[in-house]
Amino acid sequence: MKQITLKKAAEISGPGLHKGKINRVMISPADADAGLLIRNAGCEYVLNPGLVADTKRGTTIKYKKSVLHTVEHMVSAIRGLGIDNAVITVEGDEPPAADGSSYPYVLALRKAGLKKLLKDKKFISIREPVLVEDSGRYLAVLPFKGLKISYFSDFSAHGIPPSDVTEEITPVAYEKMISKARTFGFKSEIGWLIKAGLIKGASLDNAILMDKGRPVKGTLRYLDELARHKVLDIAGDFGMLGANLNMHIIAVKTGHKHNVEMAKKIWTQSGYG
């Protein structure tokens, strides 16, 4: 399998979910073995899990003067389509939220076109299971040929029955079954999220607001859209590893904190860190 980049640049602009500013992202072709190269705030660096500075309701990376919030949806789209190498220029402090899913990024990347390179893809495989545990939340990674993600959600405290999703991540499956799942929140949480300086750019057009077990506006795109968005987030957080993954990720009630903790473990053990 050969490495993949873009044929031409893809562009997307709009407000960020948490900081609310109008920002612009350009995702451009890159050479083989370049990885995901970030250009922002006068800095240039290759994305990796060691750059994560915060995981509060999103994944924030920091490198010198560059601080980028909520990078996971953008990265999820890039890696979900199997793209190995790209130059990602971000004008601002947060990739656009778009509609709250990664699908607008997928559409922009598809429009730009994908191109095979001459070098073979890089893979990270694990030989033994790895586990992260945190107060009844579990994230396990098992040996597997390819990438499979399972997520078990339990939002019963918000009137939503437990749900589970398992998808083997290929470009076709990712686009159809995962990329359209939107970020979400609960009406009861709005107050503290605002106090925490978050959701400044959130609206009913770029996030699902749940109240008493139902969306305040519209309908769900999938019956299990909330759990599927968690799979989208996992694909994005693990996508920072900079290689294709041979593993089955099994997550129970986890979030960005656990994704990044596991990604850092794998990054170090694989010799990348």
Structure description:
About 20% of the residues lie in helices and about 35% in strands. By secondary structure, it is α+β, with helices and mostly antiparallel strands. The protein has a domain at about 1-120: lpxc deacetylase, domain 1 (Ribosomal Protein S5, domain 2, 2-Layer Sandwich). The strands form five sheets. Strands 11, 12, 13, 14, 15 and 19 form a six-stranded mixed beta sheet that branches. The longest helix has 14 residues, at about 225-240. The mean pLDDT is about 95.
CATH architecture of one domain: 2-Layer Sandwich
Uncertain ranges: none
Q: Give the overall silhouette.
A: globular
Question: Strand content of the residues, in percent?
Answer: 25-35%
Provide the CATH superfamily of one domain.
lpxc deacetylase, domain 1
- In the CATH scheme, the class of one domain would be Alpha Beta
Number of helices: 6
Q: Taking all residues together, what is the mean pLDDT? A: 96
What's the structural blueprint in terms of helices and strands?
Blueprint: E1 2-6, E2 10-15, E3 22-28, E4 36-40, E5 43-46, E6 52-54, E7 60-63, E8 66-68, H1 72-80, E9 86-91, H2 103-112, E10 114-120, E11 123-125, E12 130-134, E13 137-142, E14 147-153, E15 163-168, H3 171-178, E16 184-186, H4 190-195, E17 208-211, E18 214-215, H5 225-238, E19 244-252, H6 256-269
Parallel strand pairs: 4-9, 11-19, 14-19, 16-17
Antiparallel strand pairs: 1-10, 2-3, 3-9, 4-5, 6-7, 7-8, 12-13, 13-19, 14-15, 17-18
Task: Provide a quick synopsis of the model.
The chain has 6 helices and 19 strands. It has 273 residues and is α+β, with helices and mostly antiparallel strands. The protein has a domain at 2-122: lpxc deacetylase, domain 1 (Ribosomal Protein S5, domain 2), CATH 3.30.230.
